[in-house]
Amino acid sequence: MGSIEKIQLIIETNNYAKYWFGSDVALVQHPLLDYYADDIKLYSHDPVLLQHGINLVSKWASANALPLAHTKTSLLRLGPENSRHPFHVDSIPISESTVVRDLGLLTDSNLKFDLHISKLSSLALLRCNQLLKAFKSRSLSLYRHLFNTYVLPLLEYCSVVYSPSPSSVLSQKLEKPLRLFTRKVLQRCNIPYSSYLDRLEILDIYSVRHRRLKSQLILLYKFICGAAYLPNIQSYVRLSNSARRPMTLICVRPDIKDFFSNSIPLWNSVTCNTHKFLSPGEFVSLLNHSISRL
């Protein structure tokens, strides 16, 4: 929310969030507060509490000569039973949005990423066409390097957050830039028409789907091993007690569509024949062999 320069420390405990603004200490019972760099987010189901949090941040910002950027402050309402309560920053109404950009991701009021994926696919296609227009080489290795450098980072940024089902229309949209790029590159290099899988093998590139699924499972591995922090992970996933299949995971809330319910079936399919808990290197090697290039 807004544009603010620095929050030095945040400590969250149960129903309280204690945060230090410079030398000032404020104790607020909710709303929850998140921040990254110069972006902060306040969220709560209680409109009174949320407005109180907004007032607190605005007061601190003004006191430190860092007024909030009203034009960069947006309100995203979540849930069908939202109270539609109006909110203000310094008596100025906060504009309500159906879609907001948060750390580069477009998220709508249903917590869907359809618009983000559509725009991302269009941008990646544009970048592919720009590269093909700018370079006239017949070197496959050059085109592979160009795609990996200028297009792939667009498609991989935060992909574990919005990752759609592998067979969905959205997944096909994400794959479209690489399909087009590989087809045009092989045409330029006078290589006969080939299937998408053959083109990937010729260029030694993995599909966007492959890389996205691999990223999901590596993040899940990090959560399980404690290499990536996730509070109360036992509320989402736990290891089975199977001695024969020690890497089998149990989804605690399979009825909820989230990262875990989407990733755990794939994890269990990949690790079903594993008789020990693999090291990070062994796990990555298993993924490379288990998830098809396509």
Helix content: 40-55%
Q: What kind of sheet is the major sheet? A: 3 strands, antiparallel
Q: Beta-strand percentage?
A: 15-25%
The shape is globular
Head-to-tail CA distance between termini: 40 Å
pLDDT below 50 for ≥5 consecutive residues: which ranges? 1-30
The Cα radius of gyration reads 23 Å
Protein name: Reverse transcriptase domain-containing protein
Organism: Caenorhabditis remanei (Caenorhabditis vulgaris)
Outline the structure in words.
The protein is globular and about 65 Å long. The two termini are 40 Å apart. It has ten helices and 13 strands. α8 crosses α9 (259-271) and α8 runs antiparallel to α10 (280-290). Helices cover 44% and strands 17% of the residues. The longest helix is centred in the middle third of the chain and has 21 residues, at 114-134. The strands form six sheets. The chain has a three-stranded antiparallel beta sheet, with helices on one face.
In terms of topology, how is this protein built?
Blueprint: E1 9-13, E2 16-21, E3 24-28, E4 32-36, E5 39-43, H1 47-63, E6 74-76, E7 88-89, E8 92-93, E9 95-97, E10 99-102, E11 105-108, H2 114-134, H3 140-150, H4 152-156, H5 159-162, H6 169-188, H7 196-203, H8 208-225, E12 237-239, E13 249-251, H9 259-271, H10 280-290
Parallel strand pairs: 6-9
Antiparallel strand pairs: 1-2, 2-3, 4-5, 7-8, 10-11, 12-13
Helix pairs in contact: 2-6, 6-7, 8-9, 8-10
Organism: Caenorhabditis remanei
Protein name: Reverse transcriptase domain-containing protein
